[in-house]
Amino acid sequence: MSNVLIIGAGGVGQVVAHKCAQRRDIFSEITLASRTKAKCDAIAAQLGGSITTAQVDADNVPELVALIKQVQPKLVINVALPYQDLHIMDACLETGVDYLDTANYEPLDTAKFEYSWQWAYQERFRNAGIMALLGSGFDPGVTNVYTALAAKKYLDVVEEIDIIDANAGSHGQPFATNFNPEINIREVTAVCRHWENGAFQESPPLSTKRVFDFPEGIGPMNIYRLYHEEMESLVKHIPTIKKAQFWMTFSDNYLKHLEVLQNVGMTRIDEVEYNGQKIVPIQFLKALLPDPGSLGPLTKGKTCIGVIARGIKDGKKKQVYIYNICDHEACYREVQSQAISYTTGVPAVVGAIMMLTKQWHAPGVWNMEQFDPEVFLKELGPMGLPEVVVEGEWPEL
Ligand code: NDP
């Protein structure tokens, strides 16, 4: 029975709060804190007032330390934005409390998507005897666990991976992003990198396109190659991987809007001067776009996120496709959020369960593929995200 502090009351924070509240056997006390306390209170109201709420600026380490000392959690679940990761890790170090997040630290002024800053905390976390679990969402997160499962159970050697993320859902809006628009657009417009020949190879954003026939009635969709952070930790921790690629579906409509926004400079992440005031165009754009939280009741259809791992088993070439299908409307009925927030929030809670039950626990800074995938998946299915495993042939991408 543990006391947990959740930081961030956006789409993902809402799912995390709901899912923790469903597991009172593990999370006996739940505090939800964020920059805007009213958002925490609205989520607490959905849960019949059974959780505590607080206001915190997670960029202010002394404020965080004071809150952690007051709440005395066993674990801090960070589902604020990637910009806050290091501040929350600093506060955890100061108070001796374990840490979990779903996205790598990002500096405000450059889109990097890399783990270097957080891996640099390794010695400090180990010396303090506390644990940080990085990237416990779906991708990164479950995709790392699926790759670890392929390496443990289905292949003797993993040589290639394709991580494929499909949102086959529709929200009926002309243009909107399913999670924080700033992070989403930064990710999509960044230079593409994939792993091949022992190094990350660069290509222009969204320049490599394929058609992939998704299972379970979703059917063929366009997928585009882009860089995603889990490839960095996967090729480090599973060094037999010779090639790693990440693919995501985008509709023609989404890409049309994105192209125009990019061409007119609305996706810039640097400051521009306007009427004597400095503004960051992508932050202004975020203010104009629909709040991802508001898409929940509107979104229909499914997501399909998974990993195709190819390699050698018993001397023969083999591949395995491990994926999850999640239904937007079913998620909304359960936790009042669409599937993008759901598929991130549920693995965060399962990661927390792994840490609090000590099934995954060691001092230091860790990525998901470094622990036993089977115990995690045993919990993830019943919590709402079961996996499907298809062994054998699959068309090459
Ligand atoms: P939202 O923008 O919906 O929510 C972010 C929340 O963090 C908001 O409540 C916001 O407060 C709060 N916040 C922002 N800055 C601060 C601060 N300085 N102090 C305190 N609280 C702050 O984002 P999402 O819920 O969609 O995403 C949450 C995280 O999940 C992100 O890091 C995102 O990158 C990650 N993610 C990971 C995925 C994965 O599969 N691994 C997939 C999708 C998302 P306010 O309401 O005041 O703005």
UniProtKB/TrEMBL annotation:
Keywords: Oxidoreductase. It is an enzyme of class 1 (oxidoreductase). InterPro entries: NAD(P)-bd_dom_sf (IPR036291), Sacchrp_dh-like_C (IPR032095), Sacchrp_dh_NADP-bd (IPR005097). Coiled coil: none annotated. Transmembrane segments: none annotated. The keyword Oxidoreductase applies. Residues 137-383 form the Saccharopine dehydrogenase-like C-terminal domain. Its EC number is 1.5.1.43. This is Carboxynorspermidine synthase.
